[in-house]
User: Fold this.
Amino acid sequence: MKTIRRLYFYAITLVSLEVVLWGLINLLRTALAGDIVPGVETLAQALALILVGVPIFFLHWTWIQRAAQRDEEEHTATLRAVFLYGTLFVLLVPAVQNALALIDRLLLESSGINAYYAIFGGTQSWKDNLIAIGFNLIAAAYFYYVLQKDWKSIHDKENFADVRRLYRYLWLIYSLTMVVFGAQQALRFDFYIPSAMLGELGRETFVNGLALLVVGTPIWVFTWNMCQDALSDPREQGSLIRLGVLYLLALVSVISVMVSAAVVLNNILLWVLGKPMTGLEFTRQVGGPISILIPLSVVWAYYGHWLNVDIQAVPDTQRRSGLRRFYFYILSLIGLAAAFAGVALLLSVVIDQVGGWALWGDALRDRTAGAIATLAAGLPLWLMTWRPMQAEALAEGADGDHARRSLVRKTYLYLVIFAAVIGIMSSAIALVYQLLTIVLGRSGTYYLSNILNALQLLLLFAGLLLYHMSALRRDNARSADSLTARHADFRVVIFDPGDPAFVEAVTAAIKKQAAGMPVAVQPIDQTVPAEARRMQAMVLPAALAFDPPEAMRLTLENFDGAKVVVAADVPGWVWSGQPRRGLNASAQQAAVALRQLAEGQEVRPSVATSPATIVLYVIAVLFGLEVAFLLFGLLMSLVTNQ
Amino acid sequence: MKQDRFLIGILIGIVVLVVISLGLFFARKNSEEYVAEDTPEGVVHNYVVAVHKRDFEKAYSYLADKQNKPTFEAFRQSFIINAVSPNNVGLEIGSADIRGSDATVALSTIYNASDPFSNGYRNSDVALLVKQNGQWKLEQLPYNFWAYDWYQATPAPAKP
Assistant:
């Protein structure tokens, strides 16, 4: 309830602040514009925004500040931190954008180019920009002051530190985007080779790029240094936000580099394959993708380096390998998709040429170049990322076990198998359709071409399926061998409190999780044999763990192995932070813990997944697939549709 | 904190890129000059240069004397109110095809790319010229250099 109320107050405050601020900015812009007659409506609108917005803002903001003074929980709430840092962000970004527009137009006008070509605010005046900068900075200074006061006065700084981290990385992404885009525009201009063309076309590209670099570079360096300096604080070192941003930067840049490289290669191949192109035209064609390739290669190298440094700094070797694996499998999936598409396109060209269904010309040249370029971009990426992952999964020992059992690897393999099965279905349908069309009386060589193309796709998808199925089967076989041995070495004793249902539930759960795990049952009213003390784990019900008989207490105290407690309701005791589970579910949890211990894993309690969460997961996966197909389609269209 | 040499390298790279680009920017400064106007290509060239230099009197002098020719004021106004915007397009002048007192000049109008991946696009077009008093005069050009209502009859006001 408190959170909902908080959300309401902060949301209204932010909206009313923006209403008042932009009302003031528009009011001053209108007043200084000098054209009273056309400004009447604008003036009325600005005044309306201020007159309505000011009381609402003060009412809500005053309540927020009083609540924060009264209540420490309000003062340190995550939502307050989100509001203060979010407000700073939405105030400072317009200030930067207006500074960019102002600098860009000044540079354009001083170069004799129409200011209309500015990347932002081409129709604005210097007064418009200065007013927006001034008002936004004044408001930002106030909220910065409030934030600084909060930092000094609050005791629990964790929420504020988390949000501040996010705020810094948002600035990093924003400013880095400006730098990359600025460098791209400058490089685009460098690759533009002037001809006998009349007009200043293209010159604004460099000036816009220069403005982006002038504004973006200092902000990027300042923000990145701030992020790096913060690493001296141990709480910042394992930050998931930092890791997520580094992954994002490295992956986005490597994908863009791959696409750009494919486009450059496509143009080179078109030239080699005899497309009539002057050197000038060729340079213009490759200039665009090269201007993207160079800055994003630097981003990839730089942030890939820092991602690697951060991953290497993770003390837990399994977690470290897991983080590395995640990066490699994403790249491997992209490389595989591109390589597969390249092979399919190339085979299609070969079929059409051998069958004589397409004559060598512009269309076939474009298809050949596109296919080779896609293959050349995708195949090395797939080999560079898949081979180390495969070698890791084929390794003996604990590292190999973890690699084979990795959720990321399993997801990758099942995703490829899923795509291959769908592909087989689609190409089989296309093949059967074409065959039936001929059987039912249609004829023509065109159908033969379609049949062969459907067949080659069917065979390729089948190959893809078989290869990945064999990898999965090999993983399972090896995992089973090594895990069975581990399970067999892990002996467990179950303490029976005289409840056959308990013993039966735990024994059945252990059999289900690790069939080869030796289990002994020890009634608590009998003397514990010396052998039981040499077992690797003991399992006992919660009631017994909380209040053991004296002999049992001594046994537990002297036992060096794992003591696994099966959660259950115990009169007088309350389990905090644990969902209520029945005996079978609790026994299942205990068995999972035993299996994890036997396999040398960290024991992680599994969280019960609600149906709503499962629905959300399904929606998220479908959305992710749609985005992946969209990106893949973009890659294909960039390479093939020049 | 340890000095980040990679970051310093990137900053040096940015500075080098800006310096090279600035050098190219000034080296490529387009000094559009008038040429001899005894050919149709020369007339098209000079008209476009005059328009870019906003020398409207000179540009107007290249227009053919025909019925419904715009007045000089109407001609100048077309550029001032951006009804004709020659600045957002490049123009490459090709060869002329002269047939008696008429001539066509092949033109390529070049537009900027709308996204970083594209390379812009070009349209093939022509300029129409006519020889009047021994001089080539313009009858029509692509719309970035020519208003659609020039040489059009002004419609008569509707009767009440």
Q: What stands out?
A: Chain B touches chain A through 38 residues (CB under 8 Å).
